Protein 1
Amino acid sequence: MAFRVFERYDDKKGDRMRIEDIEAFVTVIRSGSLGTAAHILGISQATMSRRIQSLEESCGAPLLDRSTRPAALTARGEKIAAICHRILEETQTLRVLLAEDHQVSGDLHIGLSPHLAEFAAFQIFRSANEIWGERLRPAIATDAAPALIRSVAQGALDLALVVMPGSSVVPQQLRSECLLRSDLIVVGRLEDWSGKSSDLASCSARGWVLNPDGCGFRSMLIAALQEQNLPFTLRLAAFGSELQLASVAAGAGLGLVPRFTLEKSSFRDRLMAIKLHDFHPTLALHAIQRDERSRAQEAMDVIVGIVRSGLSEQAPS
């Protein structure tokens, strides 16, 4: 059955869907819960539930299994999720092309966290060239999260896509949208680990392959080690996820990376995510900009959509 998408909903025709219902569904998938998704979209949880139910009625089947915590996708939900992602991305692109201010030109200054930049920078450049050509050109810088946030506050960056510890707080004077919450994982060489759970004490002697000083993830690890009076031994300090994971695969030490970094790495088949029973770090990906609407807002919304879409794509085999 082919579905048609309209901004207005005719409840006499179940095959018509509202963009806001699709957006609600995709936001629940990305955030992991109805409550978090409602907060991201700035609506009540009751409104969020109604939008999900409306989409389920249009699809003729439940999309979320509410008996689990957090709610999981049903078999029908799995099939529809990828389509809904694409609908949102195409809708964002269409809005840019039709918006009155789509003629904005010049450079769009974007900051990316290093773990994000390795796959997102290419996608941003490619998509921007397809949409705007020479009219609007991304200028991308990578740095640690605190430096990127300062650059946004000072006006040096139009937009920052920042991966930071899950407990971190974005300054109130900036506008922030949480795009993803996930776990941060300790990674080791596959042949060195049996798949059983471990602990920080077992890991600390092997040493670590991490970002340079100033990284929030590194600080979080050091604090956890200090709580147990465990040593912190650094084997490699360098930006670059693939460099770090290549070094881990070569036996240099253990890494600490976002799960999506491992999933997209060309070294993923030689590595293992190590489950630690005494260390459970989390991360959040935020899109951050100044708390004022920019003339390039539609373009920035598309950039955010490009990164969201990239996070859901599987790495090539």
Note: Residues 1-14 have pLDDT under 50 and may be disordered.
Protein 2
Amino acid sequence: MQEKDIVFLDGEFLHKNEAKVSDFDSVFTFADLVEVAPVMFGVLVYKNEFFARLKRSLEAEFVDFVFNEDELEENLQKLIEKNSLKEGFLYFKVSKGVSSKDFDLVEWFEPIIMAYVYEYKIENNPLVKSGVTIILLPEIQWKKIYKKSGSFAARCYAQKMITKAKAYDGFFVENDYIAYSLNSSVFIIKDKNLIAKPLPNDKILSFASELGLKVDERAFSMQDVYNADEVFIYAASLPTLPVVKVDERLINSGEVGEFSKKLMQRYIQNMQDEARKSKYFAL
């Protein structure tokens, strides 16, 4: 996976080697926000969900970045076109701006925005057919409170453990329950029940209902994962990625499950339908 050459930085389209931010930008000193959206047929899809998540994150992070959805969509679409991207995903980052390392969030300078895109197979991704391996990790995000660092330090440490284990992702475990996944949301299916921690993802819940699955929003344990008929993870860049192995235990005898396949097919169909309805669709 490789990012494309052109980025969008504070209203300008620049080559990635020319995009510069201050050493004192809050993205380096604090954990600022990132949102992701898929691209299909050269079009930014699920834009409404993307904007809703972005607004929610901005409010939660006390970031005073007010934007016009149509104007921002137009600029992001230009970014996609300048990179000749047909399929993949877009990263959108917002920092609180340049400031001294002051934990008082009242007075910030102008927020800085940056966006860039990756080329990535969504429709014919081989991992969807093979499934992926997951490892279990101790919850470390807040355990090492003595260690001062900004942003994704704990996640980078976790990613090293995942790479060393030759796995795709990791589930953080706390008190024998799945706290969260490093890069995605976790779902399990048992006896035609889709079980997940409560999350604002109406599409996946709607698609599950269409397939005859009953939705059960609750926390679940490691044992629930081991005993599940199917396990899959969801991310904006690649929805419904089947999990066939967790640590050394096979899920569904190591085979991709029926509902995981159908959910991914439904997502692909829905993405393509959304792309075709966009005014930027050009195929």
Note: The chain has eight helices and 16 strands.
Protein 3
Amino acid sequence: MAKLNRLRARFVQIQNIKKMTNVMEMIANAKIPKIKNQFKSAQEYFENLDYIFQNIVNNLGSKIDEFIKTESKKNLYIIFGSNLGFCGALNNLIIKKITPKLKENDEIIVFSKKIYNFLSINQSKLIIKYYQNIEESNFSEPILQVTNLIYQAILAKKYNKILICYNKFISIIHSKPQVHNLLEFQKNIIKYDGYGPEFEPSAAEVFEKLMPFYIKSVLEKLFIESKLVETSARRASMESATENASEILRKLELEINSSRQTMITQEIIEIISGKM
């Protein structure tokens, strides 16, 4: 009887876990289309702005180095990750990718509670800004703050590299940790048949004025992409957890039935033995 009670209690516990994972899977499923639309809009805006920006870079040629070349050895890392768990190894993959590269004079801006908790153990002195509970619905103000910080740092030639660490969306079930160098521009990737575009008052001035918009569009695109990867990973994790819970419940049900049948058989034997 005691064994049967333990099995029934375990069955109820697994049922409750299954309900929770099923609800979390449904929430993630509901959020994915909305974040996908956000990502599509951010990507289209970035691609159009990037085309204009690349035209300016082409026009400037080697003069682009006057804006970004610096003698500083310090790097700035901007890290996008998740605030909540249940999304697989996304945060661990980013941590493994960047921690070997960190130097004692580098600086870090973190958009992730989980990654901040890890980095604050050994690299707390490197963290200059930390944003927690920033999601796809309330990211505009923090992104604008970081944009202004980066723009002022570029003008002051404070950093050698500005590296954005995020999870790249490949498909609903696949992603890859990436590090994007914001100050790495590809030159001469746009070929003109005749004359290229002319910029007034000059390409250099347009570049300087357009830079904040470019930085903001990159940050927004990569932040939303990270959130899309996180939500997709959480949906997959919760789907797997729900399936595992269903399998455990099936086995427990068989074990409960077997235990109950054994107990009934034992009682029948005792009754027959008593009559004899």
Note: Residues 203-275 form the longest helix (73 residues).
